[in-house]
Each structure stands twice: as structure tokens, then as C-alpha cells.
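Hi team,

Filling in the usual template for the complex we talked about on Friday. All components are listed, including any nucleic acid strands or ligand strings, so the model treats them as one assembly.

SUBMITTER: L.P.
PURPOSE: interface mapping
COMPONENTS: two
RESIDUES: 914
SEQUENCES:
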Amino acid sequence: MTERLVVVGGDAAGMSAASQARRRRDADDLEIVAFERGNYTSYSACGIPYLIGEVVDEVDDLITREPVVFKERFEIDARIRHEVVEIDTDSATVTVRDLDAGRDFTMSYDHLVIATGAKPLRPPLEGSEAAGIFGVQTLDDGLAVREAVASGARRAVVVGAGYIGIEMAEAFKSRGLDVAVVDRLPQPMTTLDPDMGALIGERMHGMGISVRCGEAVTGFETSEGRVSGVATGAGTIPADIVVLGLGARPNVDLARSAGIEVGDAGGIVVDRKMRTRTERVWAAGDCVEKFHRVTRRPTAIALGTHANKEGRVAGINIGGGYETFPGVVGTAVSKVCDVEVARTGLLEREAKDAGFEVVTAIVDSTTRAGYFPGAAPIKTKMIVERRSGRLLGAQIVGEEGAAKRIDVIATALWNEMSVDEMLNMDLSYAPPFSPVWDPVLITARKAWQAVEEETGS
Amino acid sequence: MTERLVVVGGDAAGMSAASQARRRRDADDLEIVAFERGNYTSYSACGIPYLIGEVVDEVDDLITREPVVFKERFEIDARIRHEVVEIDTDSATVTVRDLDAGRDFTMSYDHLVIATGAKPLRPPLEGSEAAGIFGVQTLDDGLAVREAVASGARRAVVVGAGYIGIEMAEAFKSRGLDVAVVDRLPQPMTTLDPDMGALIGERMHGMGISVRCGEAVTGFETSEGRVSGVATGAGTIPADIVVLGLGARPNVDLARSAGIEVGDAGGIVVDRKMRTRTERVWAAGDCVEKFHRVTRRPTAIALGTHANKEGRVAGINIGGGYETFPGVVGTAVSKVCDVEVARTGLLEREAKDAGFEVVTAIVDSTTRAGYFPGAAPIKTKMIVERRSGRLLGAQIVGEEGAAKRIDVIATALWNEMSVDEMLNMDLSYAPPFSPVWDPVLITARKAWQAVEEETGS
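RESULT (copied from the run log):
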């Protein structure tokens, strides 16, 4: 008898699950239906700032696969503008709203994948629903922002100085808008330690972006239903367009209503096979909690690369294979004009919160041999456990060729290496690629010296 | 009583050892004398091709520290143009020849570091000592080649299509010379598997370099004592200048004469503290064998980054500290015009020779998200053990941003990871840096599929 897999959410996690299940079970054995409430399936949400900044020209470039491709090539019935509004786990059915037809219908499932993603945080302030105020979570959001810029917006305010906010600020700047970034925290990029994040604020300032950190937004001013300004403790910033870059939380409303367990970190609780604690129900992507391999606790991180991996894992298991998701170490990378920024593992504060006592090391070096043309600055920080020298986290701020070195550190972290062992690792060396001691090795060496000095050995 | 450390060889390994020993023991406690037969101490030999290609303008750029700096800043007596011609381990003395004064003297030691480096292979052919034929092992060699180009050489022949040979060919090409590269092996870059190395041959050809692989050099033609051509089985190639890029062997003549043990891989045998098997005698750098962590056997690899690390280890131990050298995994990287080439671990052939049965995977991907400007091609190959899926080696050929990814794989290899575990690692993702699945992850995934297919699971 043919079983049916229903997927809720047609982006990275959901469609990866659908595709992997299909690889292992053909359409006679498993019918697959995916519902997406927006207008697009399988796109690169991380590419939205580049679409707005016209680094990427065509919206099609961001779309991996359209519904027709899923249909014809994979026999997956992917339906856009269909919102799943209820899950009944007792009867194993979902209620689906056809947004264009304006009617609801129910469908039964043998397997259900919840891939509802994340939802942007909106400040609970008057006017925050006004026209001209946008999130940047979905491609639909991104297209709306692009349209607003094309329609002549001249002054943009970005609320939130995290990496998405900064990418958006850069995009607006490159389109010639006046840009201010407002954050209640004292500095931008709080995904970095304060000493590293401060470097980003300096660079944004140098780009002509007005950086207003330490200013809480108190409300939005509107004129004829459209946003006209952002009010903060320090006054009002005029705005034709406002983007909310306050981060995102797992979108668990639907799951929670259905009685599917949501954990302390705010995401759906899954095991390593991506099963929820409810029979027949799987979940993957930004809506689920991930195991953090350094803190050994669940965490919520919205990131396309995790969503793809988790969806793949769910799909393989639904397809009858065996695969597990091993967790994350908190790696992230972004680019602010010429500045590359990356992190992995824990910040100093996070390490202390997790009960570690730490020492740190910061090293300024170059991406290539110092004498080689194109050698760019790279500042690397490592946070390590005192006494053991175990690596706990790292951050990089630099220019061309700097940030991707975080992957070496992430791999070392994954393997629970100590900086003592790392400092002699066999990393590649040639003058166009690295100084004779790679910045990763130099920083590990300096961190190990800090451990030794601290223990007096 | 003041002890004396004598260092034989004033480049990376020797001077690192001297500097580290000095950090831990002051001049009253340990006198340090380093003898270098050439004209320079502590320089970047890997930078020589770039000096000749005028990518780097000044010879001073390649010199890390001159003797006067060692003297004044570190109280290390570094003497250039002084060649150690004999070691007497019974009396613990060295005989030193002052090359300018033309006289010998002896000096006693409490600790001796042998850092005599590597010597280039020269073919045992008639004419191979003629003027105009150069090795590129030392900075003195490099300056001689640069001088020959400046004096009007128009036709260059490079014997040996390894990475140094190719770097030299590119340097000559960029200076406007006609360049031929000759190698008896059927293709260039035999540090890669044939399928990957073939790509390099195509690129060299595209650059206008005459690639003559599968042609053995049979002799050198000379005119008035200067080289005028290179004879091969296929004819004679006219040449004003010839560079020997046939690789190098550990320079162990002095050690062997002194009865210091040399191993099967051709280098001085040392333990993890860099002690030889002779009392008071240490060794470091290109002249010693290194433990290969994948084959678990000694190997001889001439590379500045190892020399620096080994010298540091020897120096710390001589200084009364404790440090060990953990071995190598065979990582290397180089650049041929716009093509980046890297490897780590074992080639297919090397893996089979070491007793592994293997499966392989090759993946074509891009360095950034496919839609992002500057996305460059990257081809990644992994060699993994069948059944276990343990990573054994990898190679990368690509363009801007490709090669340094080898360090992620080298770190995984260092930790004896399987590709099954690697494929879900938390590597950084953002469109300017990577596709949503990094090429490293895609290749690990494909390699794991190959393992599963092979075992029929």
C-alpha cells in the first residue's frame, strides 16, 4: 500500500527531506506532498541581501528548484500558496488552506515533516506593522524590500546590528540610500566578543553607515499608514524604509498547537534521526533545536546549511535508510564590504555561562606571506579552557581570504582538540596562501602559552 | 657553567631552534653559535620563484632576520660563510671552515643541532655542472637565476614538472622567456593522482608553456662551458638557462660521516623531541625524517613549515622545556598562475602501497554560491578506506579560494575522521564564501556513498 509523506514548509529543510525520501522510495511506495505558504520553494534566503544590493541580478538565481521541477523530475507534489493551519496527530491529518482559492481541506499522512522555519522577531511597539517596515526572512520579504528601493526610498533604517542587519545596511548603502543601523546593545555584531565586534562598528562607520548602538527603539512614526521615522531614546531617525534585523526564533506555533514537544531553547525537540516525540512526526531546519557539541545543550540557530543537513537526515530515515545529525558547533561567516567575519564555538561570555574557565589569545597576522602581493590583515581570537587548553571557540575578523579559515578551527573544535595539539598541525603553506606559520597555528600557539603561563608551568 | 649550543645551518630549522633555546636560557647559561655556509640566514626559500618572477621585488623581503639581528636582539652568534665540515661526536666538537678566510677551526659543543636542509637532485649526466644550470634550493641559487635572466637569457628549460619546477616555469614565462618543462614521467605534478595532475598540464599548455612530459633528459649541450641545450629522447631543446626542479633529498652527508643514524626514508632519525640517536645531538628540518601519521612510517618531505615547527621543538627541549613534534599528514599547496593546487594525506597509489583498499570520489563545485559573483571552479577528490570510510587523502584543483580548503581536510585527516562523520560537519556558510553545502562536505558525502555502494549497504 502506498504511504504518504506530507511536508510542511517548502524551503531547504522540507524539500531536502522530500528529495532524500524520494531517492529511496519510488512514487508507488511513497506519495510526497509539500505545502509552502509563500510563493517560492527551495531558495537561498541567505542571498536576499545580495539581491537587494544588486550583487545578484535575478531572483531566479536564488531559486534552486521550482515546483514544476519537483513534480517532473522527482514526482514530488510541491504546492505553493498552501498553508498548513492545523495538525491533528490523533487522526494523523493536516488541515491545509489554499490561499488563492480561500478554502481549507484536510489530508492524511503516514509521515509528517515539520519544516516551518524561523520567524523574525518584531518589537512589540506601536506602528511596527506599518507599511514600509519589513522583515527579511523570506524571498517574498526580500522582493518587497527590493520593490520599495526601486520605488524611490532614500532613507533606510535597519533595526538590529546582527549579521543580517549589517548585510542589509551594506546593500542599502551600495544602492545609494542613507543608512542608519540602530541597536539597543552597545555595539554591533554581538555574535562576536566585544573586542572583535568593535572592529565591525569601526568599519561600518568608515563606509558611511550611521551606527547608533546603545539606542533602544521606542516606536515607529507613521504618515498615512506608512512608516516615516524610527523613534529611539536619542530622537527620531527619518525613514522611508525600515528593515527589522532583530534575529529570528524557531517558528513552532503550529507544532505547539498540535501538542508536539518544544524545548527550552525554543525549538521543536528532535532526536538524532530528526524524529519528534510524537509518532510519525519528524521535524528539521530552523524550527528545531540543535545539539551544541561544545555546551552539550540544545540551541536554536537559524542557518540554511543546518536546515539542508537536517532535512537530508530526516528524508533518509523516512526513506528507510539510517542517518543521524551529529549537532553543531556554532560556526558562522559573513561579509561586510571588504571585511570578512567568522566565528565558531563559544564566545567568552558563552563559555563562562557554560561553566568553563577560560584564557584567550588574539593574534594579528596576514592571509599570505607578508611579502606576497595581496597579503591581507587577519585578526584571530581563540577561547580555550584553562588548564586543559581545550579549544572552546574562535573568531576571525579580516579581509580577503581570512574568514574561511574558521572551518579549520571548526573542524578542530568538532574533534575536541586542545590548542597544544593544534599548534603543530600540518596545514598547507606556500607564500600565496599563508605565512610559514598559518594564523590558525600562531593563535593556537599563543593560546597555549596563555594556558601555560596561567598554570605557571 | 655556561653551556654551548652549536647549530649547523642557519635557515628555518636551525634558527628556530636557536631562538627558542634562547627564550628559555639566557646568554650566561647558554652560548649559542650558528654556522651557515651560504650568504643568508632565515629566509623564505619558498619565495624564490616569486623573486625571479618579480612578484616580489626585493630580496630583503624574503629574509626574516639577518645575522646582526640575531646578534643584537637575541645574543645568538650567527656566522654566514662558515661551513661545518666535520662533526666528532666522541670529543663533541665540530670543525668549521671559514670560507672567506680559507681556514678551519674547531669548536666544542654541549648541544648540537643539525639543520643542514635538503640538497637538490642532480641528474648524473654529462654537462650537468655547466654554467647556466641552476638548482633553486637556496637564496644564493635564486639570486644567480635572477641574475641570469637579467643578463638576457631568452630560453629557459625546467627539468622536472613538480611544484617547484612549475612555479619556476611560471616565473620565467611572466618575465617573457620561452619556457619548456621536461619530465620523464607521463604528466606533470606527480604529487597528485594522474586524473588531477592532468588538469595542471592542460593549464600550463594554455599559458604557452611547452610541456614535454614522458621525455627523459639524456644530457646537456654546452658551448664554451655554458649550457646551450637540453638533450632528451625526442631531440634537443635550446636553452640559455636550465633549472633543475627534480626535487630534493635530505642533506645527511655530514651526519652520516659522523655516524649519526640515517633512516630508510633517507633522513636523520629523530625521536619526537627531535633528538638523534647520538648523545647531545639534535636535528630538525629538511634533513630529518618525519613520522607520517597516515602511513605510520617515516617519510622525507622538504617544507619550510615543518622545518620551522621542528626547529621550535628542538629549541624548546634544549632550553629545558618539553615539546614534541607530532608528525605530518603530507599537506602541500601551490599556485600555477590562476590555478590553485593542494593535497593532503595519501594519493591513491600511496594508499595502496601502504596496504589500504580504497574507494574515491571526485566532485566539481564552486568556491562561493553558484550565483555569487566570483564563484570559481573547485574540483575536490577524496581517497577513503573501503568498508570503514576513513579519510586517507584528498586533492584540490581550482581557482581563487579553492586550495586553502585543503586545511579543513588535513585537520579531519589529522583526527582520523571518516567521511561519514565529515559530511555533516559544521563548516561556515554564506553566499560569498561557499555553496550551502561546502565542496568539502559534498565530496565527503559522495565518498561515503561510494563506500556504501561498495559494501552493498
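MY TAKE: Residues 71 and 366 of chain A are 49 Å apart (CA to CA). The longest strand of chain A covers residues 358-366.

Thanks, L.
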